[in-house]
Amino acid sequence: MEVFQLIRESKCLLRIGVQLPESARIVLMQADKLKGFYNQLMYALKEYDRVVGMINPITRSLMTRCVQALDRLTHPGETSLTWLSLNIDVYVTKLTAGIKRLEETVLKVNGITENRMQHNLKLISKTLLVHLPENESFSLEQFVRLQEQYIAEQSEFIDVKNKEVEKASNDVIQCVIGAQASEGVVSEIHRDEEMKLKSHFNRLMFKAILTTTTKSLNLIKKRVGTRNRQGFMFVDKPFFDVSVELHSPNVLLNPSLQEVQASINKCATAVLR
Length: 273
What we know:
This protein is mainly α and about 270 residues long. The chain is built from nine helices and two strands, in the order H-H-H-H-H-H-H-H-E-E-H. It starts with a helix and ends with a helix. Strands 1-2 form a two-stranded antiparallel sheet. The longest helix has about 45 residues. GO terms for molecular function: dynein intermediate chain binding; dynein light intermediate chain binding.
């Protein structure tokens, strides 16, 4: 920095008894103050990079105007201020406060997206739509009734979480709008910026529901199916209560395999609704 080079050279000249010009003496008298400003500005620039780097990529477009408002605060330091400007301390104070406000907004937005949106999406993706105990057997009527009831309960849970994600996306938008207003930004958030955010989480919601549906169907397949060549009636704990009846000269299953398959299909259909 030229000003600090001037300070060093002035000190050297004083040591050898050279008379300094008035401007150099003024700079030398304010050396400690200028070093303090320099350290504060370097810290502010690092904080700027840190805070802007905290912005989630999916909300970056939405927060463009908030970052631009902070950039406007930095502008005087790039154009009009010098190290000897009388209001440099005011500039540093305003810049530091602006960075702090942006950080608060970023933390709020990140908190909403992480704790209310991404968290709920993870809960949905881990949800199973069927309840298939390993150590119980059921009649076909019990099986269908139990699964339809459980599917209805889990579907309601997913619907609640979906609405929470939707509300959270609206809260993110309102949080950014409020931050813009506090910075004096009068332009509204563009519709495409809102839709970009909502479309992103709509895709994640679809993926989460697809994941839980696939896992539920695979669980049905695993539980009612078997690799045993003798069939599912001969496993340690069969899933369905099926009796073998002798109707000479035939041996029949009651209920029939067709009825068992129909019940499984009914459960799978309920999962897909």
